[in-house]
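Example for tutorial group B:
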């Protein structure tokens, strides 16, 4: 965690990881009109719901507080659907 507290170290780490993974365009998106619009939209959504941490999962506008396993999430999502699709019968791997 000390790296994120030092802007220079954080930047070096971020650039290194992005380069290793072949990820490009993050800075242009984040500081450009698209990134700012996404940030603004996110702020609007979080002001409507009881979001106090990240990641927060909302299912039909309700904050999900259950387990974060693939099966628990699948079940919670499928339980919130009036007519669940066939995929709700599938068993997920861990």
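The residue assignment follows.
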């Amino acid at each position: 965690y000390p790296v994120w507290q030092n802007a220079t170290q954080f930047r070096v780490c971020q650039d290194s990881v992005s380069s290793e993974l072949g990820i490009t365009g993050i800075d242009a998106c984040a500081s450009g009109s698209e990134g700012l619009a996404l940030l603004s939209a996110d702020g609007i959504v979080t002001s409507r719901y009881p979001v106090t941490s990240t990641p927060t999962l909302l299912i039909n506008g309700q904050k999900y507080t259950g387990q974060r396993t693939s099966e628990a999430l699948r079940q919670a999502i499928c339980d919130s659907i009036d007519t669940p699709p066939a995929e709700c019968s599938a068993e997920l791997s861990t």
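Helices lie at 7-21, 26-31, 33-48, 70-79. Compare this with the pattern of hydrophobic and polar residues in the output above.
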